[in-house]
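Dear U.,

For the methods section draft, I wanted the exact inputs and outputs in one place so we can describe them consistently. I've listed the two proteins in the order they'll appear in the manuscript figures. Please don't edit the token lines directly; just add comments below if something needs changing.

First protein:
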Amino acid sequence: MEILTVAGGNTPREIDAKPDSATLTGIGESLQLTATVWNRNGHVLGSVRVSWTSLEPLVATVDATGLVTATGAGTARIIVTSGSIADTSIITVNQMPIATVSLSPSTATLEAGDSVQLIATAADSNAVPVIGAPFTWSTSNAAVASVSASGMVEGVSAGEATITATTAGQSATAGITVTSKSQPPPPSACSGHAYQRLVQVSGATQLADALKNAQPGDLIWLSDGTYSGEFSTDRSGTATQRIVLCGSRAAVLQGKATSSGYGFLLKGSYWTLDGFSVTNSQFGVYLNGASHNLLTNLAVYRIGQEAVRFRSFSSYNTLQNSQIYDTGLYVAEYGEGVYIGSYFGQWATNSSGQPDASDYNQVLNNIFGPNVRSEHIDVKEGTTGGVISGNTFNGAGMVASQTWVDSWIELKGNSYTVTDNVGDQTIRDGFEVYQALPGWGNNNVFRNNTADVKASGYGFNIKSGTTGNVVECKNTVKNAGLGFSNVKCS
């Protein structure tokens, strides 16, 4: 065997990587590097082992043979070593221009208030991803969906919007559908009401804030408990999106005293008041310039004067399925269960000197008494076209403090329909029509009512000066000292 020895030995003394620098024009392109190693006498060591390493593998990688492959735009240092000596080759990678942009997801559906992250990616003409491409974001409809600088999309309101991501003159879009925020089911005390937003309140401060900021479609849920103070609102719903205030009878709006204030003062329209209780105030539920409201399943009691009032052009309201008792604790003769309109002496204050046309209100299927100390329903001159039907009147506790307090219903408006009511015990008459001003107290109809008067007057007392009133013979009267009616039935 012959052993060859290189002059100067086999120990590496110098190494050179070629080329010293190079440029690759696209990601995925390759370049072969070479390395030459010399010993101390300047002789090339042909069989010496060398190692290759990339200090920036996200820009370029290198294999064991020195083959460099571009992986991303930028500059990479490729190091070749042999023993303790090394050399560097600088590789620059210039990616080809961006040719395409894509968004993921390309479509999304979310609820108002929710968000979704969009991811934008760019690629060159070789379909190689362009890492770190800067994007600008825009929305076609900011009222439906907004987008942040990082591609986070937030639903604002129901509708559709297009989100666009753009870089280097290329763009992609995503279609966004926003739906209304789904709501948890309302409590049983508030079932059956459509709503857009559920607002649960507990305590007077939260209730006052909810009333102040109410908007169409709100359902304000009163948790059981006592709400002390005076409560009011001038906010309104719409015909298609009512505002609902609801709770059980154990949710109690409690005023400061029966000698002052309102239990609930409503100056807005398209409200539904459902289920709760109102007590310990001078006035119970008071509608002032408020129309198209529904008052249902309420309990109104221990009130200083009238329990429910419709005044100052409050029209097309309905009070139904409610219980009213223990009124007139502060002033007995003003303790009506329901008061519709205004006495003509109050028109200057309540209706700018004109008749208080609080018209077309309905009082249906309510229970009045005991201890409604004045008329159970007082309908004032200047009002027209209401319906009083299906109510029950318990006259126990009525107080004859004034001569006008003498019947369950005192009717001074025009064209009311009074039907299917049942009364038991009154001071003098069951139902009374009265002319407070010429032209009023006319054209009212009484049908299918039952009156157990238990007093000295008539079942139906249609006073002189009024015209066009009809008392049908289908009404039933008993225990009336003066009989069925002072006019002939039909």
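Second protein (the one for the lower panel):
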Amino acid sequence: DAYNKKLLSNKNDLETVKKLINDMKEANIQPNLKTYNLLAGSYMRAGKQEGVLETLAEMKQLGITPTVSTYDTLLQSIRAVGNIPFIMDLMEKDQIPLTQNSYEYLVHSMVWNKRLEQALDILDSMKERKIRPTESTYSHIINGCIDVDETELAYKFLKDSEAKSMFVPRSAYIRTLYACARSHESNVEELWRKVTGALNLKPLEGLCMEVLNYACRAGKPDLAADVLRVLTQSKITCKEQHFAPLFEAFISNKDWKSALNIVDVMVNAKIEPEPTFMEPFKNAIEKSASDLDDAYMAIENLREDGKKVHISAFNTIVSACAHLGDVKRAFAAVTDAPKLGIQADIETYNAILDACARSHNKEIAEKVYHEIKATGLKPNADTFFRLIAVSCQQSDYEDAFGYLEETKENNIVPPASAYVLLVRKCARERDSRARIAMEEMEVFGYPVTNELKKYVETGGMAASKIFTKRPRHFAGGKADI
């Protein structure tokens, strides 16, 4: 008993346990059942399954009959499922019945080897024998479902555990919520309320982001708003990526005012939305004139509520007007900007010029450029590109060269796409300045392709991919030349 007490106090130190047993044997003290069970347990905790099997064999040689505890220790140590039939056979010979714990260890072994079906078979066997699964058994099953992406099944067993009034580890709720959010399951919101409400847990930022992404895809702005609340309570500094899913969730529901409220919240938090942030809004409202009407009404309502309308939101609406080819409406919106407390910037005017380029409306384009000069705004490369584009659409395109010169006078390198438009226009008009424009392209380091040269030589008759695939919108920068 003295040795067994020492073994018990050192059960987590396998080497010490083995030394104590050797000391017993040298002192001619015969190890008993408790001794071997303690040794088997030490091997199990050290992850040495073979050691547990050797201990079992030695017990049998000495005529010591293994008990349920011995076999449970052996089952608990199993990692290679191929050993299970052998162990079950030994248990049958020794007339050792499977207990609650025995089944738990078998399930754990199957789950560890990602054999969910076998684990479920074992669970069914328990039900047939009317053996109530342990709480850990259910936890293993839930984890096993998640490990093989059976998230719906994981949720089912989680709810089954609750129905049986079993204790479910908090980690199981967290893992299930994370898996369901990643798989976009419909039960995410319920799990989120459970985790943050009843369990009063504070999910980490990574889980919050997964739930935010789910809320975005599912169009659940209330859920997304609650995630942001939890992030704030956890003293996590919110960044643009935290707001984007909520913004997109409102857009998905065509709740334009709430979506634009998010922009207001961001700006108040000193988070300036990047241009890409507004893309979902633009993509949504440019699909129909009615959506555009509703979005414009939303910014008017925000203003009536005493909130500031951010310039990026306003510019997006003007850009949507351009996409729909409604240049007059785009220009009218800019005229109304002061009423909304908005001061138009160069991107606002560029959006109108984009509409002009789409509709070949040089008259309004010239008015816009005049207003740019009057307001003292500095035009950029996009401004001049759009002016050149509109000019090249006219029979009298002389202004295009004037805008090209103004571009350079403003210390702006004309974009390659502007030169391509000019060269192509001159080629079609048999204007010798096409070659001058190509020479200037090379001065600025833009390559002149053989296709473009051939286009000039044939007076615009040469067929080429670059001429058949015209861009849907006018944007300054690189062009396929």
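Candidate sentences for the figure legend, describing the second protein: Residues 392-481 form one domain. The CA atoms of residues 122 and 195 lie 29 Å apart.

Thanks,
Y.
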